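Example record

One chain of 160 residues, shown exactly as stored in the release files.
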Amino acid sequence: MYKLITFPNDILKQKTIEVKEIDKNIKKIAVEMKKIMKKHHGVGLAANQIGLNLSLFIVEEKNKILTFINPKIIKFEGERILLEEGCLSLPGIWGKIKRYPKIEIEYYDLFGKKRKLKAKGLLAQIIQHEIDHLNGILFAEKAEKLYKFEVIDKKELFNK
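Predicted structure tokens for this chain:
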């Protein structure tokens, strides 16, 4: 059983290795990743965030889960813009980070088919974030500003 890994676990700082074969095990891992991502209300999750040193991530896009295996960004478009980001592996931390507004990515799907995808906006941002994970980079390392949020009791806030 896999679980979400949070900082400062060392696996989050390691560059992942390529998936050699897309088999039943990889498909099972993708299913488990989806469950974990949903449980923690995320929009993307890299394999190293569940303790696996594999070049694999998933993204939720328009209520669909996209799986990216051995992804490579092959094109960046536009000038980088400052965006807000958070990360399941850094709970309670948000920051402002520069990302490209449009990218093109090459990857393999769960059927072993090589694909290309042009992404823009939020999808492009999430993909860049997840590829950073695969390279052992946390968004907080690139962020221009970081913020820490904490959960507070509503009764405490309103003195009720």
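Notes: The chain has one domain: 10-157.
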